[in-house]
Amino acid sequence: MREAKGKGDGQENAPNFIHDLVREDVRTGKHGGVVVTRFPPEPNGYLHIGHAKSICLNFTTAALSDQGRCHLRFDDTNPEAEDVEYVESIRQDVRWLGFDWGSHEYFASDYFERLYQCAVDLIRRGLAYVDSQSLAEIRERRGDFYRPGVNSPFRDRSVEENLDLFARMRAGEFDEGAHVLRAKIDMASKDVNLRDPLMYRIRKVTHHRTGDDWCIYPMYDYAHPMSDAFEGVTHSICTLEFAHHNPLYQWFVSHFEFDPVPRQYEFARLNLTYTVMSKRLLKRLVEEGHVGGWDDPRMPTIAGMRRRGYTPSAIRRFAERIGVSRRDSLVDVGLLEHALREDLNATSPRTMAVLRPLKLVIENLPEEEEIELVAPYSPDDPSFGSRRLYLTRELFIEQEDFMEEPMKKWFRLAPGREVRLRYGALVTCNEVIKDGSGSIVELRCTWDPESKGGNAPDGRKVRGTIHWVSAKHAVDAEVRLYDRLFNEENPLDESHEGDFTRRINPASLEIVRGAKLEPSLAGRGPGERVQLERLGYFVVDPDSTPDRPVYNRTIQLKDSWAKLAGKG
RNA sequence: UCGGGGAUCGUCUAACGGUAGGACUCGAGAUUCUGGUUCUCGCUAUCUAGGUUCGAAUCCUAGUCCCCGAGCCA
């Protein structure tokens, strides 16, 4: 696969405070100049473009040092929400984006025994205790933003009793909710996360990897920093909502002799216009049938974008261009689309297809004649090669490319007007045939045989060039035209009426069944990308078969005519 | 009523006491067998009010607004 070269893709000095800071650490030789990062998804859903930003950041940050590496770690500490189904999809998505974690694939669940032993160690040192309050009591005694918490009556249990209780929790002697293990920090802390946070809870649930080996499971706040430390992570990068956990993160890792001691850094998560990014909301779109699934081409999931025809390098370049900072932002999806077009423009072969066919008959071309033409796949790069087209008496052109009463600045076909059939010939429209109801069904034209191939023989100016296919050679196809999923920049804006699903764009998918493809488009397999000239970039959908090709519109070309026409 | 984070063109993001720059968008033009691409030019910003300084987006003071935080979720 060709890649757009030149501007971007790792070469630019992208704005990124994490990179700045890590470069400084490398320069000063911190951790021996080595940088270890990790991408830590919970296997409970599909990855989306927001995760892509994080993946790019983690991998490119690690690449800042020669011996740097980025781990893929599944944060699977909550068996109730997680499933192996997601593990493979996550691997596939990260790989597809172009990143390689080598042998460094880990699961928090692989650390359960070690985490348990570390917890025992904390108990021995009087830094953790078993609390036997009910959930409601714990919540009540935690206090709130304005009032400090109150110590649990179980806070001062002896080490022996704690050890015994914790062992029996593990052994399955207690019901869910009977006890929890808590870190003994400070119930009066202004930071509610430090008010004796829970480390373990009892869950008699089968884990997707450890089965029924465990009935106590560590909490994120404990498992995450420890996992980072076990793996030798140096820079633990996460989104801003975890900033409050940083003191706790440090508390845990500082109580053991880790080298290096990992440190957490936070950045602002990605928000994009005209979509939603939360797993919960995306799940609703799927479950309520607003879209066809997690890989629906309208979804901002990696799987959806892949099916839509996005390229990994466009996503990477986008991630790099938007930069990394600590401010909340809502990135214009136009930035993503620009990166996409930039890549597709450089890599897609040009072909022709007609979405809404209008028959055009060349009266001075005999029925049996087939004029063979060679058309390049790229207007400016011969290495793309070429394919054959056939000019015949009956052709299809786009309904939109004919206007019976042309408005001003109309360059396309109209009665008495001459246009160029792309790589074909110059044709002039003589007559418009209509059916009983007055709709145009056919155009009668003549062609200038001197213009074969599309060149004006005498250098005469022909402003309009339109796409076409030979009726005899055309292949029928289904084409799915996708547009943005929501009508509003921010579907979650509270000033709107009702639920966010009310902002779904009813025209986000239009299925065109009678599209006519040029022959070269028929044999292409799922994932192949092309430009349909003047229409946009398209990709073959997995639903496609040799007899029944299905193309998805990835994105339209920029259209300055639409802009002009729109202004009246 | 608490704690933490953050405010720079329409959008994203630089400038770290010394010319507010880049990308996207938008506008004008050139080129063009895609009203595409490419090229040229242009418009648009430091949250507010004070202060320090020869000089402030940057430092100080006081405000304002936004985001996050009280799961046995991550």
Structural write-up:
The chain has 568 residues and is of the alpha/beta class. 25% of the residues lie in helices and 22% in strands. It has 3 domains: 17-104 and 231-340, Rossmann fold; 112-220, Glutamyl-tRNA Synthetase, Domain 3 (Glutamyl-tRNA Synthetase, domain 3); 350-567, Ribosomal Protein L25, Chain P. The chain has helices at residues 17-27, 49-62, 84-96, 112-124, 135-142, 159-171, 220-231, 246-254, 279-287, 302-308, 312-322, 333-347, 560-566; strands at residues 36-39, 69-74, 105-107, 128-131, 180-183, 198-202, 216-218, 235-239, 263-267, 350-351, 353-354, 357-362, 371-376, 386-391, 394-398, 418-421, 425-434, 440-447, 465-466, 468-470, 475-482, 509-517, 529-532, 536-540, 550-555. It has a 7-stranded mixed sheet with strand order 10-23-24-25-21-22-11, covered by helices on one side. Strands 19-16-17-18-12-15-20 form a 7-stranded mixed sheet, with no helix packed on it. Strands 4-5-6-7 form a 4-stranded antiparallel sheet. Strand 16 (418-421) and strand 17 form a beta hairpin. The longest helix has 15 residues, at 333-347. It starts with 16 loop residues before the first helix and ends with a helix. It binds one RNA strand of 74 nucleotides through helix 5, strand 6, helix 7, helix 12 and strand 19.
